[in-house]
Every structure is written in structure tokens, then in C-alpha cells.
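Worked example 3 (structure in, sequence out).
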């Protein structure tokens, strides 16, 4: 069984709506990772998994709403016990010979019922690791950061590596949006930022069937965005008949305006039915 701590940033500023945002992120974590449990604890989420892998870490790093995360190991609230867990994790991550590496301990005690204080963890656990592994204390530029989080009165969660997420808000918490998806540079970037701000997306790509084209690039970009936003529908809309009608009835100087107006009309219908 693997345990992963997930921290978020601006979800904690949502006041009375905070629980709705947290629940949305819980659902997405459970669905994306196949998690057995996702628990809320003192401004963080605890994900319990049957196994942990690099693929799951990369998936979690792309999930909107996640600020940072770490795989942890539990330990009793005892300095010697925490030291043994930390030493095992350090050796697993950096090998047996870590003598001379710069390190620091970074503790956070969100459950004030715990009998041990953060300054005690910094001093005593740091001293134990320095002596046992011949590490060098460096608070400004550490190579190894031993994280200790206490969110329960009877145990600590310890980690030595953390991954950064993309932040933002969970997808769907800001409603739905439609992107006119040309396949150039601007529309995929706009779509990414909409996903990061919590919008579920519909992608709409317009084409002319009288002109031969390959949809491979559009489909690849859509699949790439789906890695961040889950299921994203791609709508392919043929404008050939409309453009033929416009060429026959609209002066050349106004055709581009008419084309864009039609695209917006179609996108609006898709948005209303999404």
C-alpha cells in the first residue's frame, strides 16, 4: 500500500465553497489514479494506492488543482522511529553513500494535539540524521529535504522527495467552455490555461471538405490536452457548404467576417448542448 500526500494552493482560499473544490479534486484523484481512498486532512488530501509508479507521479503532476505531492511513509511520534524511516527513504532515493550531502529537515505540525513540536523535530531529527549519515546541514541550498508532516495526534508522515504540480483549480469547478481550435499556437495554449483555471472543455475545429487535409495534428493536440483535463470532446465541423454559399452571395471584403460569425454561431450551439 502506498500513501501520497497532495497539497493544493488556492483551493484553500475559497471560503464556504472550499469543500466543493476539495470534493472535485478528490473525485479526480480517485478516477485518475484508481485510488482506494482519498481522505481530507488539515488542508491536504491523502491518497491511498495499491502501488506507486513514475507513471502515476507524472499523471498527478499534470492534474489541475495539485500544487505539489509526495509519497510518504508513516512513523510513530518518536524521534528514533522517525529517523529510521527517514534513513531508509534517503538510502532508497540516493543510495547508501550520502556522506557530505547537504540536507535540512522541514517539519509541519497541523494537528496541535501532537505532543512533539516542530522545533524539536528540526533539532533532534536533524541531529540524528547528521550523525548517522554524515550529512551536512544547509538550510539555504539543501540537496536532500526531509519533510515531516503531522496531521494526526499519533503519527508523522515522512518523505524525502516532492513533485511539483501545475496548480490551478480542478477541472469542472469553473464551468464549461468551448475553444475554437485551429491547431495553431494560440488555441492550444488558450485551452491549456482554461483547463488550469478549472474549465471543462469542448474543442471545435472547422474545415472545408473540398480541401484535402490531415486531421492528425488536431487529434494529437486534443489527446495531449486530455492528459491534463481528462475526457475532452473534439468536434469537427465542415464549413464547405456555408463557404460555397457565402462566395456566391457575399462580397469578398466581408467573407472573412461572415465565416467567423458562422463559427461563433456553431460554437454557441455546441456550448448550449454540452
Amino acid at each position: 500500500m502506498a500513501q501520497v500526500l497532495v497539497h493544493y494552493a488556492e483551493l484553500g482560499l475559497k471560503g464556504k465553497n472550499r469543500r466543493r473544490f476539495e470534493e472535485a479534486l478528490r473525485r479526480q484523484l480517485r478516477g485518475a489514479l484508481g485510488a482506494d481512498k482519498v481522505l481530507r486532512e488539515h488542508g491536504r488530501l491523502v491518497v491511498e494506492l495499491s502501488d506507486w509508479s513514475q507513471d502515476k507521479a507524472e499523471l498527478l503532476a499534470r492534474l489541475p488543482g495539485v500544487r505539489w505531492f509526495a509519497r510518504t511513509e508513516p512513523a510513530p511520534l518518536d524521534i528514533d522511529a522517525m529517523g529510521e524511516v527517514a534513513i531508509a527513504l534517503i538510502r532508497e532515493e540516493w543510495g547508501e553513500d550520502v556522506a557530505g550531502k547537504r540536507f535540512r529537515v522541514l517539519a509541519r505540525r497541523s494537528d496541535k494535539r501532537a505532543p512533539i513540536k516542530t522545533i524539536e523535530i528540526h533539532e533532534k531529527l536533524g541531529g540524528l540524521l547528521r550523525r548517522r549519515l554524515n550529512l551536512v546541514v544547509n538550510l539555504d541550498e539543501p540537496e536532500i529535504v526531509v519533510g515531516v508532516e503531522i496531521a494526526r495526534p499519533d503519527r508523522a508522515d515522512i518523505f524525502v522527495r516532492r513533485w511539483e504540480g501545475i496548480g490551478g483549480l480542478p477541472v469542472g469547478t469553473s464551468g464549461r467552455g468551448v475553444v475554437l481550435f485551429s491547431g495553431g499556437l494560440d488555441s492550444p495554449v488558450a485551452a491549456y490555461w482554461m483547463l488550469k483555471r478549472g474549465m471543462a472543455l469542448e474543442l471545435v475545429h472547422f474545415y472545408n471538405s473540398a480541401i484535402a487535409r490531415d486531421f492528425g495534428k488536431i487529434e494529437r493536440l486534443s489527446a495531449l490536452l486530455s492528459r491534463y483535463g481528462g475526457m475532452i470532446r473534439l468536434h469537427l465541423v465542415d464549413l464547405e457548404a456555408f463557404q460555397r454559399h457565402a462566395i456566391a452571395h457575399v462580397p469578398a471584403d466581408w467573407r472573412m467576417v461572415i465565416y467567423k460569425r458562422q463559427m461563433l454561431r456553431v460554437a454557441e450551439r455546441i456550448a448550449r448542448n454540452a
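Notes: Helices lie at 18-33, 54-61, 79-94, 118-133, 186-196, 216-229, 240-249, 252-273. DSSP finds eight helices and twelve strands in the chain.
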